[in-house]
Amino acid sequence: MARLFVVEDDTDHLAALCDLMQAAGHEAEGFASGKAALDALAADAPPDLLLTDLRMPGMGGLDLLQAVKALPLDLPVILLTGHGDVGHAVQAMRAGAEDFLEKPYDAAHLVAVIARAVAARATRAEVGRLQQVLVERAEKTILGESRAMRAFRDRISALAPLEVDVLITGETGTGKELAARALHAGSARANGPFVAVNCAALPDGMFETIMFGHRAGAFPGATEARPGKLESANGGTLLLDEVEAMPMPLQAKLLRVLQERAVERLGENGLRPVDIRVIATSKTDLRQATESFRPDLYYRLAGAELVSPTLREVAEDIPLIFAHYAQLAARRYGRPDPDLPWALRQKLKKRVWPGNIREVKAAAEAHILGLLDLKPDDVRIVEAGSLADRVAAFEAREIAAVLDRHRGNTLRAAETLGLPRRTLNDKMRRYGLSAEGPGSV
């Protein structure tokens, strides 16, 4: 059964239409004017379909159709008219009408048209939901086919099912939280909560109550007891992001929680047991940060360690990662799937990405919006080193420029450079250049 809005200024015809729709198993709500229906759309949950007469005093059917299409709704509109002509039909269909029927209409045909439109709307909604699911899953994918990235994924797969706390170290934007979520998803705790805490973003004065919770009356304003993040993660995984920013006094309290697997709320004297797996991430090597981070807490957190690779280590994956996020951005902004020419892929690989994957993602979105500008300054250029290093850097740039000119065709590039193709391939391997265009090796 679908919920329908029926709009008709002729009260007898409106009653007959509503009776017909109810007899067909739908819930019909009648309106004597387009404005009344539009007001109801703004005030109530939208129906599954709107059936309206074309010619009405005040707001006509076409005006109502255009007003509905301006709303952020997927609402099919079917128009009825006793004055049908080709011009009106074309105008209605161009304005986005689902169908256009002339009076007198065949009741069975009208019911069939409505059933088809309602089913098509339901299909669009389901497709949209599935696409959103795919986008959300894709956002959580750890991408890359390089040896370093495959080894990183293998390590995550091996650690995920183990009941061991994990410390993930890596530069900003290398996907440490993605790795933490993958560890949680691959564990027996996957159906439990995943609670993330950014230790760098919590104010010092609130850190203790947010992490450990408090009893009612523990401090002014604490009108009721509240569990902390540690208790909220019970049965699941607690992510301590940027754990290196945790204040020293609280490190001792966290160490006690990890040792006893129990938490004491602020203002209480008893311990509450917690069943949690802790995953911590850090931008710095905690073994070297002995002045700001307790070594005993480091050893407690680092039951196993992961190091997320930088883009410098997986440069060959940059075009793949860029293409992935560009495709997601294209879907989000309603743009066509992007085409990444060979020259652009080469520029992406040569560019320095201090923000790692996060920066690549932002650049891919800018590319889809036509805002990406890869400046020459973004390309790595070796200006220091011995004469041999500088000559090698010059040779690499010249080879890359010729490959750019021939879109990666190594046969033509070798002819232009006056080199045997085998020699060119050797030099490309030596300088880390790759050919992905037509005619490449």
From TrEMBL:
Sigma-54 factor interaction domain mapped to chain residues? 142-369
Source domain of life: Bacteria
Does this UniProt record's set of keywords contain Zinc?
no
> Key word Cytoplasm present in the record?
no
Residues forming the Response regulatory domain are 3-118
Sites where 4-aspartylphosphate occurs are at: D53
Which key words are in the record? Activator, ATP-binding, Nucleotide-binding, Phosphoprotein, Plasmid, Transcription, Transcription regulation, Two-component regulatory system
InterPro entries listed in its UniProt record: AAA+_ATPase, AAA_lid_NorR, CheY-like_superfamily, Homeodomain-like_sf, HTH_Fis, P-loop_NTPase, Sig_transdc_resp-reg_receiver, Sigma_54_int
Q: Where are the transmembrane segments?
A: none
SUPFAM superfamilies for this protein: CheY-like, Homeodomain-like, P-loop containing nucleoside triphosphate hydrolases
PANTHER family, per the entry: C4-DICARBOXYLATE TRANSPORT TRANSCRIPTIONAL REGULATORY PROTEIN DCTD, TRANSCRIPTIONAL REGULATORY PROTEIN
| Record protein name field | Sigma-54 dependent transcriptional regulator
Supply the source organism for this entry. Answer: Fuscovulum ytuae
